[in-house]
Amino acid sequence: MWTHKTGKTLSATLVIATLLPGCATSPDGATDDQQATVAQGAVFGAILGGLLGAAVSDNKATGALIGAAAGGLIGAGIGSSIAERKAQYATEEDFLIAEIRRNQEFIQEADAQNNAIYQDIVRLDRESQRLAREYRAGRASRNALTQKKASLEKQLAKAKQINSLAEKQLADATAVHQESRQKRGNQDQYTRQLETNLVQLRETQQQSSQNVASLQKIYDSMSM
User: Fold this and answer.
1) Burial class (CB in 10 A: 0-12, 13-18, 19+), 21
2) I need a labelling partner for 184 at 20 to 30 A (CA). Which of 106, 129, 173, 217 fits?
3) For every residue of 92-121, which 3-state class applies, written as one string?
4) Spatial distance between the Cα atoms of 145 and 131, rounded to a whole number of angstroms
């Protein structure tokens, strides 16, 4: 049953109950919605973290364990955030509508930021190459090079922040979509809209990641 946040009691059986029986169950046997969602987020994060940990570590077993632990903490944070947002709505449908709108608004804003940074990358790359040539030829000072690197560093920090937010939004949207698909089915209108969100969010995150890589490359090229 869904209640408004003033009630502070949310009871529903989530898909996590089938994945981790009993881990989010109260003494009377009822599944608490927020506990279940946090647990689901932790499972999702642990699986993802384990895969990433194994991929980046020389010791695959140790890397997977460390990644799973870290991913579990991250996933629990994602789940907690979703559970808190759920508590603000009287019905599941209202929550899903709000999540879809939240994704759309994020995509619009992040894409605008990404496009602006991409345009700057073209300019910064051209200017940085010119300045590097002039510096090597003795026609530009080290101070000019330092100032340009400082400007690049600020832009790189901004791009990394956008990428981090895009990753978080994508993780949130993935968790909500998985739950909706499990509870409502693939053909449900909200599940399908969330799937569309996911496709767009992946593209947004890929662009932000590419911006970070491009800016990092320009920044590294100015190391003299």
Assistant:
1) exposed
2) 106
3) HHHHHHHHHHHHHHHHHHHHHHHHHHHHHH
4) 7
Angle made by CA atoms 35, 79, 157, in degrees to the nearest 5: 150
Which residue has 């909706």 as its token pair? 180
Token pair 């593209």 in the structure block, residue:
203
Query: Where along the chain do its domains lie?
Result: 1-90, 91-224
CA angle in degrees (0–180, nearest 5) for 62-67-73: 135
User: Rounded to two decimals, what is the model's pTM?
Assistant: 0.64
Tokens of residue 185, six digits: 């089915």
Look at the block and give the residue holding tokens 């994508």: 170
* Highest mean pLDDT of the ranges 21-25, 32-36, 102-106, 205-209: 205-209
Q: Which residues contact 209 (CB under 8 A, 6 or more apart)?
A: 163, 166
Tokens of 25: 């169950």
- Cβ-contact 17, 31 below 8 angstroms: yes
How far, CA to CA in Å, does 186 sit from each of 2, 31, 40, 174? 22, 24, 19, 14
